[in-house]
Every structure is written in structure tokens, then in C-alpha cells.
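Example for tutorial group B:
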């Protein structure tokens, strides 16, 4: 038997709990850094400088137009003088009514991935903020009134989340200096409906103001009514709005026309009181209720509200689509009628194709005021103002992005058509087929197109990062 002495390095056992020491020599480290540097340089060499310039120019022009020029152009159509019919010496009070912004939150699409929710929130927030800013700059209403559903899941949030969303709301809709903004009308997404918590209602009121209030604007009396709490069967919930409704006439000037503002529309017979041609949906106005919502206030309560307040005009929200009807009611022992307008939602995520706001122009000089608000001429005019098409910009962005991808595919993954033609035709327009004898002399090896997958991937990343970076700079104002 031949015995072989084991070398010291054979079957070396590392003691337990002791890691083997691996030495990092300076040479090895320097070599690795050089390799990384070479790889980075090679990646940058794959980037097409011409492509970068084209991308920057195209995307800057496109995004500037879509995010700035296009919204301005659309909102300019709503200028007051385009539809007001007052005399040149009139000084009307101009009001913008914004319904159901319902800013997207984690409650809105709870089943979706968080990254998708993030992008949806950024896009919808930008849409609301951009339109609101240009509405304030171009139309410059004296007063802006929100008709409820400021949030989407506000009724469910704890205090920490609620105040974070409140700050976000103010970033989207920043108050304008020397202009009045009213946000105190609650919606069912703000405070609930069938199941309501007094703490949630008080929290909303403590920040946004009195939920039931009377104010005068442009020689008109505005009554802001929390009809949701008024509809509650819980005496603790309906106590304040019930007391307000019982004493509201004490605070209303009988010589001024009265305008009622509420979130949920008043009851109507939808087969007879049709909404008109400006409504998107061809279906009748819904009369229904469900989990934490009700599409109309009950008939008896609606009639009580009308007969107590006596409005000539009513504005509501909640439905998201437009509706314009006449509401008959009994007031001071005689028949009366109020025009009720359900204002369209201003949000792109509200299930309608064309979001809008409602503009209201009031002109009621003191020399026109008569007893009980009866006037010789009309004292208000109102017009629906459409917002920019919510998906027009997105479609344009996607279309241009797909075009750039197509160019990259053609450049890096497909052969050049001119090279293919040159292979088919070397001498004139008619290609000559070589014979066996002269094949070696007539056919010369030509360079064939080799797909450049690395170049495609690198430039695809560049073509994606550039528009996202530019868009982010436009969205960063929120």
C-alpha cells in the first residue's frame, strides 16, 4: 500500500462560527473599478445623441402644449363676456361652482397595486390642479364654491390620514388672494350618509367651516345646507341642521333672491322632470340609495326644504352629470317654482367623458330690488364651462411614445430597407442573377444587418426617462 501524505490545504476544515477571510488585493479592486468604468462608458456610447435632441425637442413642445396651451385655450371659451348679456355698465358678482372633485386616495381603488394608485393620483391631481389654476387666472371669479365630496374616502380616515389629505386638497386647490373660497358643504364621501359619526362631521366643520350657513353675495342670499345630516334619523346628527332650517328665515333678507346650495339633489319624478340635452347619460336621473349614498333627498324632506327656504335657484352635486329641472313647491300660500341644476363633476375620474364646472353671474343692483325678491328682470345667468378633455393629452403622449418605440425597433432591430434594396440591385434597377461560372467574381461578400439589442434597450430607457422627467417637472407644482 502506498501511503500519501496529505497536503495542508487538503480537506481543510473551517472552524465553526468562523468565516474564511477573503483578501481584497488593491490590484483586484482597481481592475474591477476599471471594468465598471468601461461598462458605463460603453453604455453611454450606445446612446444616440441625435435621438436625445429629438426627444427633448418633441416632448418639450408636446407637453408644453398639452399642459399649458391647450387648457388655456379651452378655458378661454368660458370667458364671462362670451355668454353674459348684462349691460356694459353692470358690475356682476361672478361665481364658480365646483362639484365632486373627490380626490383619489388609497380607498378609491383598494384592489389595485400601490404603484398604479400612485400614478393615478399624480395624473388626476395634476388635472384638477392645472384646470383650477387656469380657471382662477383666466376667469378670475370673485367667489369659488365647492359643492361637496371634496375627498373620496374622507368618511373612513383616521385623523392623521385625514389631515394629510386635507393638506393635499389645499395643494391641489390653493386659495387665491383677495378672493372668497367656500368649501364647507359636505358630501357623502366626506361625512357618510346612512351610517354617520358625529366626530367625523365635527372634524370636517372645524376645518372647512359651518355646514349650515347664510351669506349674501351680489345682492343674493345664499343658503348653504347640510342636507345629508338633515336626512339622518339620528337626533344627535340631525339636530343642528334641523334647528338651522327652523330658524333660517330669520337670517334671510326677504327682498333678495334666495339661492340654495346643497350636495345631494332634491327629489324629482325622473320620468317627468327630465334633465335636458346637456346631460351626457341617456338614462333617467337615478332614484336610488345604497352603501353610504342616496341619489336624492326624500320627497317630504325636499318639499320641506323648498317651502321653508323659498329659493328661486338651487345648485347641487353628487350625481357627477348635468341635470337642469324645474322644482314646483308650495311657498307662502301660493305655488312657486325653483330651477335646480345638478352641477357636473370637475374630476376626470368621476365616470363622465367631459368634466365641467358651473359659472354663475349675479347682477342685482339695489334699484331692481322689490318686495319678496320679485324682479322686473332676471338677476342671474349661468353657464356650464367644460374642462379640457381628460384623456386627450394621455392619448397624445401614448401615441408619440409608441412612434418613438417604432423608430427604435426599426433602427436597432430591423435591417435598413436601403441596404436590402442594394443587395437586390447592384447594377441598375434590374438585379442580375449570377451564373455558376462567374458567381465568384460577381458576388462579393456584403455586410449584413446585425440587430443591436443593447442599443435598443439603452435608447428605449432614454426614450422613457426623458418624457417622464419632463412631465414630473410640470406635475411638481402640486
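The residue assignment follows.
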Amino acid at each position: 500500500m502506498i501511503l500519501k501524505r496529505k497536503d495542508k490545504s487538503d480537506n481543510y476544515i473551517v472552524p465553526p462560527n468562523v468565516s474564511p477571510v477573503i483578501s481584497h488585493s488593491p490590484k483586484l479592486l482597481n481592475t474591477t473599478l476599471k471594468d465598471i468604468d468601461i461598462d458605463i462608458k460603453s453604455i453611454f456610447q450606445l446612446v444616440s445623441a441625435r435621438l436625445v435632441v429629438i426627444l427633448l425637442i418633441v416632448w418639450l413642445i408636446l407637453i408644453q402644449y398639452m399642459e399649458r396651451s391647450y387648457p388655456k385655450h379651452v378655458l378661454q371659451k368660458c370667458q364671462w363676456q362670451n355668454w353674459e348679456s348684462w349691460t356694459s355698465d353692470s358690475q356682476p358678482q361672478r361665481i364658480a361652482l365646483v362639484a365632486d372633485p373627490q380626490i383619489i386616495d388609497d380607498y378609491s381603488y383598494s384592489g389595485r397595486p400601490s404603484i398604479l394608485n400612485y400614478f393615478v393620483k399624480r395624473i388626476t391631481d395634476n388635472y384638477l390642479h392645472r384646470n383650477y389654476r387656469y380657471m382662477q387666472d383666466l376667469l378670475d371669479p370673485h367667489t369659488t364654491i365647492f359643492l361637496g365630496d371634496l375627498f373620496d374616502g374622507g368618511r373612513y380616515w383616521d385623523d392623521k390620514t385625514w389631515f394629510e389629505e386635507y393638506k393635499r386638497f389645499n395643494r391641489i386647490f390653493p386659495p387665491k388672494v383677495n378672493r372668497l373660497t367656500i368649501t364647507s358643504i359636505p358630501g357623502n364621501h366626506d361625512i357618510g350618509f346612512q351610517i354617520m359619526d358625529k366626530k367625523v362631521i365635527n372634524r370636517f366643520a372645524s376645518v372647512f367651516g359651518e355646514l349650515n350657513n347664510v351669506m349674501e353675495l351680489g345682492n343674493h342670499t345664499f343658503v348653504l345646507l347640510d342636507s345629508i345630516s338633515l336626512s339622518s334619523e339620528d337626533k344627535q346628527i340631525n339636530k343642528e341642521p334641523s334647528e338651522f332650517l327652523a330658524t333660517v328665515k330669520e337670517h334671510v333678507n326677504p327682498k333678495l333672491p334666495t339661492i340654495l346650495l346643497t350636495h345631494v339633489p332634491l327629489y324629482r319624478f325622473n320620468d317627468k322632470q327630465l334633465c335636458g340635452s346637456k346631460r351626457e347619460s341617456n338614462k333617467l336621473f337615478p332614484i336610488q340609495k345604497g352603501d353610504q349614498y342616496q341619489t336624492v333627498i326624500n320627497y317630504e324632506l325636499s318639499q320641506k326644504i323648498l317651502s321653508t327656504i323659498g329659493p328661486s335657484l338651487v345648485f347641487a352635486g353628487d350625481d357627477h352629470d348635468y341635470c337642469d329641472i324645474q322644482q314646483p313647491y308650495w311657498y307662502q300660500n301660493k305655488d312657486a317654482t325653483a330651477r335646480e341644476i345638478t352641477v357636473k363633476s370637475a374630476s376626470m375620474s368621476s365616470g363622465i367623458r367631459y368634466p365641467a364646472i358651473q359659472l354663475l353671474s349675479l347682477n342685482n343692483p339695489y334699484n331692481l330690488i322689490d318686495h319678496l325678491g320679485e324682479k322686473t328682470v332676471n338677476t342671474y345667468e349661468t353657464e356650464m364651462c367644460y374642462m379640457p378633455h381628460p384623456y386627450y393629452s394621455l392619448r397624445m403622449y401614448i401615441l408619440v411614445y409608441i412612434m418613438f418605440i417604432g423608430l427604435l425597433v426599426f433602427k436597432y432591430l430591423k435591417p435598413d430597407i436601403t441596404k436590402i434594396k442594394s443587395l437586390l440591385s447592384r447594377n441598375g434597377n434590374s438585379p442580375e442573377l449570377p451564373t455558376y461560372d462567374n458567381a465568384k467574381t460577381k458576388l462579393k461578400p456584403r455586410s449584413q444587418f446585425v440587430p443591436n439589442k443593447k442599443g435598443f434597450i439603452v435608447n428605449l430607457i432614454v426614450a422613457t426617462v426623458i418624457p417622464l422627467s419632463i412631465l414630473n417637472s410640470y406635475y411638481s407644482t402640486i
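The chain has 13 helices and 13 strands. Compare this with the pattern of hydrophobic and polar residues in the output above.
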